[in-house]
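Replying to the earlier thread about multi-chain prediction with a worked example.

Input:
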Amino acid sequence: MRVLIRGVAVIPRPEAGVIPKADVVIEGRRFSAVVVGEEVQGPFDRVIEGEGKLLIPGLVNAHTHLAMTLFRGLAQDRPLMDWLEKEVWPREKKLTGEIVHWFSLLGLVEMIRSGTTAFADMYFFMEEVAEAVEKAGLRALLSYGIIAPKPERIEPELKKAESFAREWDGKAEGRIRAALSPHAPYTCGPEVWKRTVALARELRIPIHTHLAETREEVERFRAETGRSPVEWLEELGVFGVPTLAAHCVHLSEKDIEILAAHGVSAVHCPTSNLKLACGIAPVVEMLKGGANVCLGTDGAGSAGDLNMIEEMRLAALLAKVHTGDPQALPAPEALSMATWRGAAALGWGKDLGTIESGRRADGIMLNLAQVHWFPNHDPLANLVYAGQAADVDTVFVDGRFLLIGGELQTLDEEEILGRCRELAKRFK
Amino acid sequence: MRVLIRGVAVIPRPEAGVIPKADVVIEGRRFSAVVVGEEVQGPFDRVIEGEGKLLIPGLVNAHTHLAMTLFRGLAQDRPLMDWLEKEVWPREKKLTGEIVHWFSLLGLVEMIRSGTTAFADMYFFMEEVAEAVEKAGLRALLSYGIIAPKPERIEPELKKAESFAREWDGKAEGRIRAALSPHAPYTCGPEVWKRTVALARELRIPIHTHLAETREEVERFRAETGRSPVEWLEELGVFGVPTLAAHCVHLSEKDIEILAAHGVSAVHCPTSNLKLACGIAPVVEMLKGGANVCLGTDGAGSAGDLNMIEEMRLAALLAKVHTGDPQALPAPEALSMATWRGAAALGWGKDLGTIESGRRADGIMLNLAQVHWFPNHDPLANLVYAGQAADVDTVFVDGRFLLIGGELQTLDEEEILGRCRELAKRFK
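Result:
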């Protein structure tokens, strides 16, 4: 299969800016050429007209709980623990594999429609999530979320996490990879972490966890252990394994040095952090310190949606007010966080995240003919500061098209919306 | 003209929540009934099916510089003064009435498409802006922006402001009203303010200005005058006239008391304030103190777009992190700021801002069949935390339809985009 995207504006990698017009060739699962100013030789199995469109690397959502689309809009504007204890946890007890499957599909439709091509998800019933991802055609790093506050929970939780990882890592033609996910330092003790690290090393897979999300959590942890959660995980040897750490809101200077020294990927989730009043993560400081910082939405139950364009915008805006510097986190840096930095965090760094010959063909096209892009002095700045999910016109992963001209290619949206509407009635 | 919107979900006013299904009747320029659970008597000149839609009061953007859509995306991520002095002001010298007219139309298309029905605009060539507004069919409070740092500028500036106000106040069947706009306390001296107040009293029109946007501006002002800009304006008697004060980021407790005591409307512009690293306005404190706080985008040159749904979301999110309270500024309050509080700020408080019998028929319908609304436990929360401009399906002002099923009714979008594309080439 050889595909030509003809005469399209391209951002091959954010640091290099915008090529106003190029021909982009996909051969099989990879980009094979980005050609400017000369004729590209056919034949092609498919030609897609790129005029009036902007082609960028697919967006990477590095921290989600996909099936929590079920809880979108439910009992909003509540304190986190109150919301979890009274609203979410009682309902999560009623979850079944079937429900997780359908609400994962719902989240996948939303992600495709807003330009996400790869994501890192942590939840329960992960086999059902993985089947949904395989069907949808996205790329994902998936993990079972281990919560083991009591010793007797350790064995069954680790077993679930391990069996999922062994079964699914490398599946769906390599589009699905597995991770191990102790939920957080405050919900899993040293034994869980040590055994997870050993297993991650054996399976050569990463760890995906929550880290330093709220001030209270960090302060309590420090009072109990004499260490910050970051210091504690380092001592346990966790960061010897590639690690995605969601949130990273409350960090000391030393914490930032530790994250950077070990190449930990911090997943900034600005909407979720604001909405739950957690705080503003020190993104600029982490980037300056040399850490890899990428972006995530968190679950739609807490964040409202799975829209990565808005997370880019919010990250760029928040960094400015947080540092007092309007030049902080400029648009290209925000797009880097949403593309190649996310790809690196998920473990596809060498293979993904830019539009260059030899890289995996994961990309999206946005429609520039919308009024809110005009007069389009700078499409990259407009993408970050004015772009909308509805501008996403075409989406492909591994050279396979998931959305063309706004039409879903792999999923039946009507069926998914209908099933979710029915299933949601049990959760009022 | 009698119109029925049949079987629609309605938020008549945000505090009252969502009516899942109602028939809404418009007679002429006003709502005449919101009927639940019984048959509505015809005949009707037009029947609009509301199933799967959400009807809310039209959004009010209380601070814009419409024609600055011309500068969208231009030299972004720069310090404010650097951006103004090197990029914007030299280009503004090249502005003509024609250019302002077309880029105002561009902004009007964007506003209609994102659900704004009324706005407050301050700029130059305001006659051209007013003509564009009249054609588009929106409702607006318009004013010429007076900048008079030197004494010899006072007369010509006041004259322009006055002649525009006298000519346009009450025009376009009452949809256009005029205001007077000394640009800010630091760009206009006491004489300008005093004469503006006298003229505003004579013409019975409000004042629209910028207030306390940056810390430096407020500190310098206090050093020079011994007063905060708010205290200074109060002493000059400005707040005896209904006043819209854009930004209000850097306020003392006393300032907040003054604004509340005089019924000043503070226009919170969260995107612009973040993007220019100005700070986060004390919105919750102002509301608690009894001030009217509404929402604005500011110009698209600095803010990126004219999208009020995003300003609602950002206001709700920022208030939470700013106060440390996830219950701060809940979704209904954000929607109030974007609707009836904005209407009150623009001087239409008794006539506009809710969907109730006797009120002006300004409203918008959003398409609930989009994936990011599902499963829709709470349409009001979803509107604020997941809603997108592209969900706006239908827009009407004074009972006249400006957008139906995503189709513009009063403006020729293709012509406007084409003209703006050509005109923008002079401003690269």
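Chain A touches chain B through 74 residues (CB under 8 Å).

Feel free to reuse this layout for your own posts.
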